[in-house]
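Sample entry (307 residues):
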Amino acid sequence: MKRAFVPPADALIAFECAARHSSFTRAAEELHLTQGAVSKQVRHLEDRLGVELFRRVRQRIVLTDAGRLYLHDIRGALDQMTAATRQVMSYAGSEDVLNVAVLPTFGTRWLAPRLVEFQRRHPSAGLNLSVRLQPFDFEAEPFDGAIHHGDPVWAGAIAEPLFPEEVIPVASRAFRDRHGIRTPGDLANVPRLQLATRPLAWKQWFDQAGVETDAAFQGARFEQFVMISEAAVHNAGAALVPRFFVQEELASGRLVRLFDISLAQQSAYYFVYPENRTMRPVVANFRNWLIEEARSARMDRETMLPG
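Predicted structure, serialized as tokens:
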């Protein structure tokens, strides 16, 4: 890399801050500098680049076309530097740090409530969780593992099965009673909530229940299960959701299971991790703990009464 083309970080930060505020004075307040110091940093940057980044209009500054383009690229680079710095700082005081990519609803509804036990067992381990919706290249991303839903296929990684996905129909008690839902066929005639990533779910459930309908694909669509469950709690419709995602709502009565008919998906949840990191103790500890928690959750589900 030609480092000679990289301006000083202080100048880039001053430029980004001034552009965000459209003011050298407000940028100076944020950066705890004088207005003159910020203006000087930006002027030095313009001289180095050979282009004008701002037009000075009375008491205001306005980005030029070149400045607007430069800001777009520089802001992304500064955000990456900030994220990298925070990640490195997270290693302070930890014997080892584990970076895990998680699916948002899985992380919120299943993993997060259980993490206190992992931290109790391994108090010296650090843990960073980030959301990723699709498989990625472990060589290109700084992750030690990921929660994956689908088939046990991930290039260059080992996939440890956690549990299959059992999907059940739920709704609020008020919605069920208002629509008089008594048989599976009744669900063909009420508002249903659809998950964008499971477009065939209602069709498959109706087929399993022996219900013929042309309306299986109708209904409001959502990106995540957590959105569907919240909509169902607030009487927006009937939903098909993984049972372990709504255990709390079922236990509290905010949702009720409509029928004992469940849809067993062929896909499952896995913990995947790169083959070249199997010897890291923190990876092995997290893998073993996660498999144990998943096994316990499966046993609880098998012994729990329907509903």
